[in-house]
């Protein structure tokens, strides 16, 4: 079977501000003719294996509201979705977010010979976890645990998913070798609201 890349959109709100993070996962166990089963497997697998670790990096002023997954690179694709009740999935770290303009960026380092790396725009960081533009060790440990769970992979409905780096320009998939925390912390405009929103 061919190696396929799927995107999962993790959507939430920080107080009244929309936050979206898009991650890419690869699999070799999906059926190209049944993308609905694959996207539902990714959504349900992420919910079971990663959701609690993800929320452990975010403050209670952030709420997870929806997951969406689709295949990328090879079109068309069905979309798998999971909705959460308003206020039912809050972050579990600290008290409040540091502000509307603090969205840490984490660089995904690819394996040797790969031309492009990846990036995760974290929705926010709890107050007290960012001191003089430096991340505290406890928050980094929580983020490391979430990323490690995604890199090592999880299985749902017979399909194993691992975090990957997908290049739209090169239409390529590469493994994640490690990750680095970007010193640049600021507002990520393209993550503010969903595509097509007025």
How many angstroms separate the termini?
A: 41 Å
User: What letter string, H or E per element, gives the SSE order?
Assistant: EEHHEEEEEEHEEE
Taking the sheet with the most strands, its summary is: 9 strands, antiparallel
Mean pLDDT: 89
Taken as a percent bin, the fraction of beta residues is 35-45%
Give the overall form: globular
| Helix residue percentage | 10-25%
Uncertain ranges: none
**Rg (C-alpha, Å):** 16 Å
Total strands: the figure is 11
Return the domain count. Answer: 1
Q: Compute the number of helices.
A: 3
Q: Which class best fits the helix and strand makeup?
A: alpha+beta
Account of the protein in words:
With 198 residues, the protein is an alpha+beta fold. It has one domain (4-191). It is built from three helices and eleven strands; from the N terminus they run ββααββββββαβββ. It has helices at 35-49, 51-55, 137-152; strands spanning 4-14, 17-27, 62-72, 80-83, 103-110, 118-121, 130-131, 134-135, 154-156, 159-167, 172-186. Strands 1, 2, 3, 4, 5, 6, 9, 10 and 11 form a nine-stranded antiparallel β-sheet that branches. It has a two-stranded antiparallel sheet with strand order 7-8. Strand 10 (159-167) and strand 11 form a beta hairpin. The model has no long low-confidence stretch (mean pLDDT 89).
């Amino acid at each position: 079977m061919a190696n396929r890349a799927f995107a999962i959109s993790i959507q939430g709100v920080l107080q009244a501000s929309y936050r979206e993070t898009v991650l890419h996962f690869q699999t070799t166990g999906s059926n190209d003719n049944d993308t609905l089963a694959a996207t539902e497997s990714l959504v349900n697998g992420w919910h079971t294996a990663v959701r609690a670790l993800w929320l452990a990096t975010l403050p209670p002023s952030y709420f997870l509201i929806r997951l969406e997954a689709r295949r990328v690179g090879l079109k068309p694709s069905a979309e798998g979705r999971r909705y959460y009740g308003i206020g039912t999935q809050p972050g579990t770290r600290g008290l409040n977010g540091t502000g509307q303009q603090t969205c840490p960026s984490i660089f995904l380092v690819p394996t040797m010979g790969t031309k492009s790396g990846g990036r995760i725009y974290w929705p926010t960081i709890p107050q007290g976890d960012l001191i003089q533009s430096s991340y505290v060790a406890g928050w980094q440990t929580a983020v490391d645990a979430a990323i490690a769970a995604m890199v090592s992979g999880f299985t749902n409905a017979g399909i194993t998913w691992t975090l990957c780096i997908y290049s739209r320009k090169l239409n390529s998939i590469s493994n994640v070798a490690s990750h680095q925390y970007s010193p640049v912390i600021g507002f990520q405009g393209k993550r503010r609201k969903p595509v097509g929103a007025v």
